[in-house]
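Sequence in, structure out.
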Amino acid sequence: MTEKGKFLQKINEAFAKSDTAFIVDNVTNDITWNVMGDQSISGKEDFEKALQQMEQDEPMELTIKNIITHGKSAAVDGVMTIPGGDKQYAFCDVYTFSGFKEPKIKEMTSYVVEVDLTV
């Protein structure tokens, strides 16, 4: 796995564990987060507030299916399961990095779908 791939795995693990501090440390001040069909967030402060609203007391179970990196772009898809197993979300996040050396996340576009566990 590439260094960016390892970094993105850590970012997604941080989402699952509600490790807001780690995530915020690895984004640019002018981060843009587009959650398709829901909201668009601009700036590190608003980004951190949005993450704090999503925090869980217990870690979510994370299954990453693919991590694809190319230049300043990347994508990760997988599934997160809420503790207790009653809700599951399939996701695909598309990332744009600030540069090539020690990059931070400049933009994220998230596609999230709740999975019907009764099917």
